[in-house]
Amino acid sequence: MPEVRARVEAIQSMVDSGVCLRCGDCLPEWPDISHTIGDACLPICTPCGNNEALEQVHNGGFVGPVAEWPTLPAPPRRSRLRL
Ligand SMILES: [Zn+2]
Q1: Three-state secondary structure along the chain?
Q2: Residues, CB-to-ion distance under 5 Å, ligand 1
Q3: What distance in angstroms lies between residue 82's CA and the mean position of ligand 1's atoms?
Q4: What confidence tens digit (pLDDT) does each residue in 10-34 have?
Q5: Global pTM?
Q6: Cα→Cα distances 52→3, 9, 34, 68, Å
Q7: Residue 2 pLDDT class (50, 70, 90 cuts)
Q8: Phi and psi (nearest 5°) for 33?
Q9: Are the beta carbons of 28 and 14 closer than 8 angstroms?
């Protein structure tokens, strides 16, 4: 799917540029790691890491999906059934 490839490439470009994937600010020398996905491989800035930690406390351990991050391209829409 070209939309998925575009999202993965946008994420890779931001990581390579040292940009926080959640807010678009610069990453610190030692970034936090997002807990939105199981393998915890997405670097984020310290304020975003703190926000995720608070979100986890208030939401029973869950954090919002990556698709809600404003810095990333919108996820592909599912096609609608035509009747
Ligand atoms: Zn951030």
Answers
A1: CHHHHHHHHHHHHHHHHCECCCCCCECCCCCEECCCCCCCCCEECHHHHHHHHHHHHHCCCCCCCHHHCCCCCCCCCCCCCCC
A2: 20, 22-23, 45, 48
A3: 40
A4: 888 988 999 998 999 999 999 999 9
A5: 0.75
A6: 26, 23, 7, 13
A7: confident
A8: -120, 130
A9: no
* CA 39 to ligand 1 center in whole angstroms: 19
3: nearest Cα among 73, 67, 69: 73
Identify the bridge partners of residue 19 per DSSP, sorted by sequence position: 26
Can you tell me the distance from the alpha carbon of 75 to that of 56, in angstroms, rounded to the nearest whole number?
23
Q: In percent, how much of the chain has pLDDT > 90?
A: 39
CB 19 within 8 A of CB 26: yes
Contacts 24+ apart (CB under 8 A), 48-56: 48/20, 48/22, 48/23, 51/22, 52/22
